[in-house]
Amino acid sequence: MFLYELALELEEKSGDLADRARQMGIPGAMPSTELTHAQVLALRGEGPMPGGTESPTGGPAPLAWGATPPVTAPAAQPAPTEDPAAKRRLGRAVTTQIAIDMENLRPRRRPSLRLGSTMVVAVVGVAAVALLAYMTVNMGSLEDKKAELAASTARAEAETKAAAAESVAAAAVGGEAPAAPKAPTSAQSAAGISDAAGFCTSAAMAGTWMADVAGKATAGGLGDGGSGLPQMLRDRPLELDGALDSLAASTSGGLHEDAVQLGTVFRAMRDGVLGAPTPAEVDVAAAAGLAQLQVPATQAAVAHVESVRAASCS
Q1: Mean pLDDT: which of 4-13, 101-110, 170-179, 206-215 is highest?
Q2: Is 256 contained in some domain?
Q3: Beta partners for 2?
Q4: How many helices and strands (H and E) does the chain possess?
Q5: Closest Cα to residue 221, out of 279, 294, 272?
C-alpha cells in the first residue's frame, strides 16, 4: 500500500502522514512511498514500527548504573521494488484528484435561470404561431382586400357622379332637377348650349365653383402656395366631377371645349392634392394646382362658361 492511500484511509493529509512516518523511523517517507504491512499497522497504531525509535511499551528500556547505553544501528530498509500496477494506481489516483479539484473550482450553474429562459422562448414561439394563424384565417388574401376596396370605391364614385348633375346642381339653383333634357333657345344654341336644363344646372354648381376658385387664385385668396386649395377640393370632389361631366355633355363648339378644359384642370388638381400620400407632397400638388388656375387659358375658359351661364340661365 502506498502512503497516500493510507492517508486517504485515515482521512489525513498525505504530507502530515509522511512527517509522522519519518518521525517513527521511515526515513525519506513521501506520499508515493510504498509501505510494508508492518509499517501500515504501525502507522494505524496497531503495532510497533519495525526498526523504529519507539518501543512497543512506549519508552526506552532502563539502564544499569554506570553502564553505557547500547548504540543500535537503524535497521536497513528494504529497497523499494518497482511495481507497475502500483504506478498505475498512483497515476489514476492523481488524475482523479485533479479532476475533483477542477470540478470544485468550476463555477456552479444556475439551472433555474436556464429553465426560465427556455420557458420564455417557448412562450414567444407559441404566441408567434398563434398570431400567424389568426392573420391567415381572418385577414385572407391582401390582393383580394385591395380588389374589393377598389371595386367599392369605383361603385361609389359612379353612383355619386350619376346623381351629381341633377340632385346637387338643382339644389344650387333652388329648383327641381329636370326630368328630361330641354331644347335650347336660338340664343342659347348660338352660345353653344345643346341642353339648356343640363347646362344651367351643372354650370350653377361646377361653373360657379371653378369661377370662385380661379378668382381666388388670381387675387391671392388661396394662401401662400395654394395652401387653401386642398380644403376646397375636399368639400365635394365627386359631386363637382359629375357636374363637370354634365357641363361638357350639354355644350357644343367652343363652349364645349372650355367645359372640357375646366374638367381636365379640376381632375388634375383633385388627383394631385387628394392623392398625395404625405403633407409635403400635398403642398407640392397644391402649388401646381394654383399655377394651373393662374394660366390665362384656364382663366379665359372659366370666364366664358360664367358669361354664358349669366346670360342664358335666369
Answers
A1: 4-13
A2: yes
A3: 34
A4: 15, 0
A5: 294
E strand or H helix that includes residue 90: helix 84-105
Question: How far apart are alpha carbons 210 and 55 in whole angstroms?
Answer: 134
Question: Which residue is it, cell 361603385?
Answer: 155
Alpha-carbon torsion (156, 161, 162, 165), positive or negative: positive
Q: Grid coordinates standing for 281?
A: 407632397
Amino acid type, 164: A
Same-domain check for residues 40 and 157: no
Asked if residue 60 belongs to a domain, the reply is no
Q: Are residues 155 and 304 in the same domain?
A: yes
Gap between the Cα atoms of 182 and 276, Å rounded: 40
Residue 18 counted as domain residue: yes
pTM: predicted TM-score of the whole model, two decimal places: 0.42
Do 154 and 13 fall into the same domain? no
Give the angle subtended at the CA of 122 by the CAs of 117 and 123, to the nearest 5°. 100
Measured CA angle at 217 (ends 213, 222), to 5 deg: 85
Q: Is residue 304 assigned to a domain? A: yes
Query: Given the C-alpha cell 484511509, which residue does it identify?
Result: 9
Instruction: For residue 11, give its domain range.
Output: 1-52
161 contacts 241 by C-beta, under 8 angstroms = yes
Secondary-structure breakdown of the chain: helix, strand, coil percentages, each rounded to the nearest 5: 70, 0, 30
pLDDT tens track for 225-262: 667 767 767 766 666 778 888 889 999 999 999 999 98
By C-alpha distance, which of 4, 10, 1 is closest to 31?
Answer: 4
